[in-house]
Each structure stands twice: as C-alpha cells, then as structure tokens.
Amino acid sequence: MTATSDLAETATSRRKRSRHVALMLAGAAVLTLAACEEDKVDAQAFPDLDSCLAAAQTDGLWFTADDCRNQFAAAAQEHLETAPRYESRELCEQEHGAGACGADPAAGGEQAAQGGGGGFSFMPLLVGYMMGSMLSRGGGVFSQPMVRTPTGYSTPSGNQSFASNSGAGRVPATTFNRAPSTIGKAPMTRAQVAQRGGFGAAATSRTATGGARSSGG
C-alpha cells in the first residue's frame, strides 16, 4: 500500500469516526441547558455504572472504564452527603415523584423510619450520574449524582434540570460545582419547602459558589 493510499484510508476512517460521533450525539437524549457555549464542557449521563462501562468500550471518547468506576463511587458518596433531605417520605415524593425516595441511610435508614425514632429523614434515590470532561481546561473528569424530579432529573443542588439521565451533550462547567452538605442537618419541613417554592426554586441559597470539584478519575 502506497503512502497516498495510507493517507486516504486514514482520512476515510476519520470521516467515519466523526460521522459516528455526530450521530451518537444527535441520537442521544441531549441534556437540555441554556448557557454560553464557551462556558460549556462535554458531559455524558448514565442511569447506572454498567451503562457507563458499556459506553467506555464502544463510544468512549474522553472517558475510560476506570473513570466510570471512580466517578460512580464519587457520585454515590456525593449523593449521600449533599442530596436534599425531607421530614417525611410523602414530602420527598411530592418534590421528586412517587417511588423516587427512600429512608436516609445516614440517619438510621428504613428501620429508624419504621420505628418512629427521632432524627430520621428521607431523601431522593440516586438514579444515575453525570460525568464531565475538564480535560481541555487542564483538569480531569468530574461527576455529579442525579435525582428524579416530577418533570425530569436534576443534580442535588436543584439548580440544573435535565430531560433524561442518559445521553451526551454540553453543559455549563458550573454543573459540576459541589452542593452544600446536608448530612447530619435537620431535614426540610413542609413549611420550609413551601417557603422556598419547592425543590430547586431556592437553589441559589443552597448551591456552592466555589469551582468544580476535583476527582480521582
């Protein structure tokens, strides 16, 4: 094979790969956010770890299987520490949807809830996680847990809304800001939720203002 034909084959391969990437992005449930393009980073959301591992093998462009594992663990821990907490399952499901909440494992879990002991609370279940690439900015791979809302999905702070917990797109870099910790704090009451206007309505008072969280990915 001549050098010319080698170049032609390489160019064809690159065109096929570019076309595949374009189709993958166009066909995915694109994360819907409005922000300045220059402030956005590549992101991909997955409903579970296995979905991420499969993508890393077939469509992975900027993340690896190790990134999937590391970031799933990081997102699960962040969810435990930062997810909103409510005084009752009914109130939690009002904000996040029927069947979308569970007893707070950090406050005794289901046994405490059933026993009626003081200090227990309820929180939305982890329903996936999002990874973001800061590689172009000299960073690494970052993650955020995802929770249900009555109309879609959200990060724990409630300041970002998504149509799906599966898909690729570009999101603001601030999506990966860590929400304030809620672990060990008093759960929100019905009156507090009403005063804030519901989950996400008062996100500005609950969202961290620092930069994106570093990760072990």
Notable traits:
217 residues, alpha+beta, three-stranded antiparallel β-sheet, disordered C terminus, Biofilm_formation_YgiB
Present the secondary structure layout.
Blueprint: H1 3-27, E1 40-46, H2 49-58, H3 65-82, H4 89-96, E2 101-103, H5 109-115, E3 122-124, E4 129-133, E5 141-145, E6 147-149, E7 152-154, E8 161-162, E9 167-172, H6 190-196
In words, what does this structure look like?
- This protein is an alpha+beta fold and 217 residues long.
- It has a domain at 46-196.
- The protein is built from six helices and nine strands.
- Strand 6 and strand 7 form a beta hairpin.
- The longest helix has 25 residues, at 3-27.
- It is elongated and about 45 Å long.
Number of helices: 6
Strand content: 15-25%
What is the radius of gyration computed over CA atoms, rounded to a whole number of angstroms? 20 Å
Whole-number average pLDDT? 77
| Order of the strands making up the biggest sheet | 5-4-1-9
Order of helices and strands: HEHHHEHEEEEEEEH
| Structural class label | alpha+beta
| Percent helix range | 25-40%
Spans where pLDDT lies below 50 across 5 or more residues: 2-29, 110-118, 202-217
Question: What about the largest sheet?
Answer: 4 strands, antiparallel
Question: How many E-type strands?
Answer: 9
Taking the alpha carbons of the first and last residues, their distance comes to 41 Å
Provide a compact summary of the structure.
The protein is an alpha+beta fold.
